């Protein structure tokens, strides 16, 4: 493809992306393809001779678009949102157009320097302590791929720090603390590193938040048994229910347990710190006082395209002491002199994409004000959904709405005509009912939600965040979910009459 | 930014990328910016109000482009090349435009399915055994971020397999084998996982290739000492000199040491397997017979934009046994039924970009024939460079050229007029001389090469691969490197007359 062919194909790509967004809301959210659909449609080998790009571009429309789940669809309420803005796309395009692997300063100064500045912009947008800024010269931030990577890096750095302080402690005594609500990244870090993971109990009464006393008791117990908890993966905004670990209480406990590294994973909720009114509920002061490392994913609820997991540490030496490998072919005059950051020593890999460009484009184009407006608008939309569910005769919220996430279930009130019974349902029956309910919802193609289990209760998550979601989509979703609830009740009742329940 | 504003900004981005490539060869390869240049140019905070995108796009040209090292410049011969094609850019743009995190089949079927098919296309292009194909249902391939990630995953899978077979062996006995020439990814995997790394010696006489006998002796010695080598990170095409570990001999040894996992890191050289004439020199048969895992980076010498590190394993269960974590919110009907691949269990993170699109666009647009043509053309260009150096009176090749990589140094023949001496130089003197020489080369902005050290000898690497490099650039580089060599000799001689050498 020569330059003029690229111009033509590029214009067409831009036009087709415009078409995609003009028609997005008319598409089903969920693909109807069956497993194996694509393999059946494609040749078994790469072609021997090159093909015309027009054919390739047309095949993208023909084969790929129908196999997509449309995460930017206004009726996408599953998982957490994934950031996708025109600004992010353009930044990805520009970054891809010069392709440098950014592993040290010299291999593209702009890449390292913009990342250092953008991490400071982002830190200040969120109200992080100056200690986390790259300008501090001690702490600092860098962009990782995912929150799993960020947590893994934190665990590696914490283990390395702990082992330097306590060289005689065997690795088999080390323990990673999480809670029962921590994202799978906790277990995965344990699997990868071959370390034990202990999930501390949290309760429904505490809204699944880790309390200081629970942590203290666990530390005391493990100390007696000779175990060495060296890091807590605390969460601000869990995936299941948006629970917020009590970082203030946790921080107070670590005054007596100074070996415990506190990593705060705010992968989803962290960007809400941009709004002053959410800072204290999300324990910003305690994060600033106690957290050794803090992560949020701008590629979730932060309008920035994947991958933009921002990770800050209070002391960059924790990372470089754990991860620095500098063979001769990676040495540079600037790196040797220590006047620049060589980001390769702040993460797992060597090469890295020019990801800070996305943050630059997004933060400038939206402005801090526009960024906060978007966060507040999505929270308001979720509050609307929660208020509708609260007034429903068949649906119930399972927890108070957390920012832009609600967790609910089908839970007919005894007086509900659909239930046709005045007795409260048993937990098992409610779970059966909600399995039927979720199967009905997930069979639909015009909306997408995901399920979860909270203390044994089968629940459904409703996460707002797609940039095109408006009030009309929330009201439409609520109506649809209510109807499916009534139909699920009917299905369940009929099954019962047939002796299947 | 609304859809029409995006169309305008998108067209402009395409036009500006066209301009970039029309003028690329007139730019210096290396940026002249000084550390801190960008921070001094940018505000200390994100703006409060959104800015016009035109201003942002203009600032990209004004502040970012001057701070780039131009890896696609035809006179870029440093590190290894990084793939960057118009096809790759367009695929990145399309992938970014719908942004799905691809962690399981249901969250975008096209994303998982295309990756499975593309990994099979790529495997067949390289001549890998059918056992590595996804269609085998046993082995399979997936796209990782970097060769460091791929190697780390291999080590985690190998450790997990070893520990299941030998549950009583403590982690502290485990050893990762590398060679003294292995990329820093070996040491980094050890650092991350807290495992010992033993670098086996390789010799100049063996062209820095790991031989079977060296491996056997190491295994015998470690067995006696109770150490448990569980993985060998073998390399086909080392970074320093393009050395090729003798996979055939290594494989034969593992017949007696069946616990040793053989990971073949062919990050750079692997794509040359697309050409039948390079298969045996690169030990393809032995890879197919013995390797547990095999990695090559299409984002290096394979015309595909970063990140596209392709990793194949002989048994996918090795990965999923080591990495599968499936909480309720990640369950899906298709995943539960086992009819689809959920790639999240094949790598370290959860989310992943839609990277297979790049391979699809590149392999179709170039065709297998066009891909091989590019590989052969770059090898021929390096052979031209090597033949010029061989005939030089001041430069010497340090090893036979390996594919598209030459390693050379300033090494004046005794009869050289510039040397003005008939005595051969000592190794220390030659190193001093080459430090002066490399300092001169790296002070230039119109060419970029990187240094290395081979068995104590300071050398310079010349890696061909930028898609726009032609014979004229090779001849120009040779002339420039010869002139700098003569100037370095003069500088050295003058310093000697002043008593500094």
Automatic annotation (TrEMBL), chains A, B:
Q: Which UniProt keywords apply?
A: Decarboxylase, Lyase, Pyridoxal phosphate
Q: One Pfam annotation, family name?
A: Pyridoxal_deC
Q: Which cofactor does it need?
A: pyridoxal 5'-phosphate
GO MF annotation: an example = carboxy-lyase activity
Lyase as UniProt keyword: yes
Protein name (database record): Aromatic-L-amino-acid decarboxylase
BP GO annotations: amino acid metabolic process; carboxylic acid metabolic process
Q: Which organism is it from?
A: Pleurotus eryngii
Which family is annotated? Belongs to the group II decarboxylase family.
């Amino acid at each position: 493809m020569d330059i003029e062919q690229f111009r033509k194909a590029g214009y067409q790509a831009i036009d087709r992306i415009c078409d995609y967004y003009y028609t997005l809301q008319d598409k089903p959210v969920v693909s109807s393809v069956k497993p194996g659909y694509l393999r059946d449609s494609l040749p078994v080998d790469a072609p021997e001779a090159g093909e015309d790009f027009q054919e390739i571009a047309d095949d993208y429309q023909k084969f790929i678009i129908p196999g997509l789940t449309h995460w930017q669809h206004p009726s996408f309420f599953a998982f957490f949102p994934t950031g996708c803005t025109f600004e992010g796309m353009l930044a990805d395009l520009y970054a891809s157009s010069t392709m440098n692997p950014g592993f040290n300063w010299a291999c593209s100064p702009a890449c390292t320097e913009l990342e250092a500045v953008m991490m400071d912009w982002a830190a200040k947008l969120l109200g992080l302590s100056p200690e986390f800024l790259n300008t501090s010269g001690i702490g600092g931030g860098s962009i990782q791929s995912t929150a799993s990577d960020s947590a893994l890096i934190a665990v590696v750095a914490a283990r390395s720090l702990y082992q330097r302080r306590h060289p005689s402690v065997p690795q088999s005594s080390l323990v990673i603390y999480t809670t029962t609500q921590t994202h799978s990244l906790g277990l995965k870090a344990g699997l990868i590193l071959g370390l034990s993971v202990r999930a501390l109990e949290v309760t429904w009464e505490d809204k699944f938040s880790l309390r200081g006393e629970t942590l203290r008791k666990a530390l005391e117990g493990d100390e007696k048994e000779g175990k060495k908890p060296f890091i807590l993966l605390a969460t601000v905004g869990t995936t299941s229910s948006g629970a917020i670990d009590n970082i203030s209480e946790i921080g107070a406990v670590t005054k007596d347990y100074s070996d415990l590294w506190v990593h705060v994973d705010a992968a989803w909720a962290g960007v809400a710190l941009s709004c002053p009114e959410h800072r204290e509920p999300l324990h910003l002061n305690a994060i600033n006082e106690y957290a050794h490392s803090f992560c949020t994913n701008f590629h979730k609820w932060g309008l920035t395209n994947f991958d933009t997991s921002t990770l800050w540490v209070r002391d960059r030496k924790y990372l470089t002491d754990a991860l620095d490998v500098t063979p001769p072919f990676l040495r540079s005059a600037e790196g040797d002199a220590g006047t620049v950051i060589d980001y390769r020593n702040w993460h797992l890999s060597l090469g890295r994409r020019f990801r800070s460009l996305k943050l630059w484009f997004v933060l400038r184009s939206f402005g801090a004000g526009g960024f906060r407006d978007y966060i507040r608008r999505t929270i308001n939309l979720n509050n609307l959904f929660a208020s509708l569910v609260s007034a429903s005769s068949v649906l119930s919220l399972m927890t108070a709405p957390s920012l832009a996430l609600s967790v609910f279930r089908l839970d007919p009130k005894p007086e509900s005509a659909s239930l046709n019974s005045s007795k409260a349902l048993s937990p098992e029956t409610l779970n059966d009912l909600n399995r039927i309910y979720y199967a009905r919802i997930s069979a639909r193609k015009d909306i997408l939600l995901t399920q979860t289990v909270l203390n044994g209760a089968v629940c459904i998550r409703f996460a707002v965040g797609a940039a095109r979601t408006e009030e009309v989509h929330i009201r439409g979703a609520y109506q649809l979910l209510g109807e499916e609830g009534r139909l699920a009740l009917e299905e369940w009742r009929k099954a019962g009459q047939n002796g299947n329940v």
